[in-house]
Design a protein that fits this description.
Blueprint lengths: L3 E4 L2 E3 L5 E7 L3 H4 L2 E6 L6 E6 L5 E3 L7 E6 L4 E6 L8 E7 L10 E5 L2
């Protein structure tokens, strides 16, 4: 089964930016849809954004216009560009197959705080 390794998180002030990366151990071209999810303390994991095999993207309303998902099939890597970060974006961010998920990686912590 494909495994995912997320990176790029950190501590950032409100209004700041981060770029997350997710490297897959196998071909994301073959996987098809890929997504970023997040889990805030005490809350369930939720979808943030997804990209389909054809490049079509979707982001949930709370991050739309601020976050952009992209993919590089040649590098088996999915990215999440996060701009205008807010305190409510604080969470552990994970990438995974969109829909029927594979095993979860360790994620990367994003903390938005002044």
């Amino acid at each position: 089964q494909v495994q995912f390794k997320e990176s790029g998180g950190g501590l950032v002030q409100p209004g700041g930016s981060l770029r997350l990366s997710c490297v897959a151990s196998g071909s994301i071209r073959n996987i098809g849809g890929m997504a970023w999810y997040r889990q805030a303390p005490g809350k369930a994991r939720e979808l943030v954004a997804r990209t389909l095999w054809n490049g079509d993207t979707y982001a949930v309303a709370s991050v739309r216009g601020r976050f952009t998902i992209s993919r590089d099939n040649a590098k088996n890597t999915v990215y999440l560009q996060m701009n205008s970060l807010k305190s409510e974006d604080t969470a552990v961010y994970y990438c995974n197959r969109f829909g029927e998920n594979y095993s979860w990686g360790q994620g990367t912590q994003v903390t938005v705080s002044s």
